[in-house]
Amino acid sequence: MALQIRFFMAEEDERELLRRIERLGLELWPELTDPSAQPPIASPAVVLEEDAYYLAAGDVIGNPIKKGPQRGRYRIDEVASPVIYFFRSRLDEDGELRSGYFWAETEAHGDQARLGGKSARFHAAVRELSELVAQRFRKSAPIKGATYFVGPAAARLAKAGLALREAGRKGELVRVYR
Question: How many domains does the chain have?
Answer without folding.
Answer: 1
